[in-house]
Amino acid sequence: KGFIEWFVELKESGPGQYDPFFDYLANDADRSELKYFIKQEFCGEIGFDDLVALTQVRFPEQAKLELARNFWDEQGQGKREDIHGPLYVTMAHEMGVHDTRESELLWETLAVANILTGLACNRRYAWHSLGAMSVLELTSPTRASRVAKGLDRIGASASACRYFELHTVVDVEQWKCWLAEVIVPLLAENPDVAVPLAEGALLRLNSGARLIRKYRTVLNLDVRLAAPAYSKVG
């Protein structure tokens, strides 16, 4: 019970949470700033469905079933137009983001992607990978809502906004299912799993927070984000 309370609290007080940078994206960022953000995120994006598929190998049956449901959701439940990956690509392309030269990518962007990929690909870190993915499900709705608002504000099409709008709702329900069907049963069976789950979650949150700080520096936002209006994301 104490571990679950600690994990859930990461949404409020974990590294990088409620950084005013996302309120800036929602309310003030111009198209070029949003494009820069999308370029970095797009080129460092690792499909969540692939991470799920790599991580669930030989997991206990109940956890495997829930991760399978998550994978099917990522695949649009069989509807090509609802597959999450292409929705993300549609949004990026509308913003003018396509292939990007490696020299234009921040090392902090690549670090986030490499952490997720490395944990998922190495069976030694399967529980770490689950922790990293779980914290993404927990924390992404707030961030997704701010990006969706920013895209809508600059006149992006409904199809371009759909990926982030979808994740403001879907990830809330998915987190509840992950908690009830994956995390709690695994901890009940083996409490030692709490340590790698926590380490994986913190690895992902800390790498993400480092990337956010880099965005603020590159876009010269620190002075503006220090203003009272950006004390906390709404």
Count helical runs: 11
* Number of beta-strand segments: 0
What average pLDDT do the residues reach? 93
**Biggest sheet layout:** none
Element string (H = helix, E = strand):
HHHHHHHHHHH
Helix content: over 70%
Q: Identify low-pLDDT runs.
A: none
Proportion of residues in extended strands: under 5%
What class would the helix/strand composition place it in? mainly alpha
**How many whole angstroms does the radius of gyration measure?**
17 Å
Span between termini: 29 Å
Shape: globular
Brief overview, please?
The protein is mainly α and 234 residues long.
Written account of the structure:
This protein is mainly α. 73% of the residues lie in helices and 0% in strands. The chain has helices at 2-13, 20-27, 31-43, 48-55, 61-74, 84-94, 107-121, 126-153, 158-189, 194-218, 222-225. Helix 4 runs antiparallel to helix 5. The two termini are 29 Å apart.
Layout of helices and strands, plus pairs?
Blueprint (H helix, E strand, L loop, with lengths): L1 H12 L6 H8 L3 H13 L4 H8 L5 H14 L9 H11 L12 H15 L4 H28 L4 H32 L4 H25 L3 H4 L9
Helix pairs in contact: 2-8, 4-5, 4-7, 4-8, 5-9, 6-9, 7-8, 7-10, 8-9, 8-10
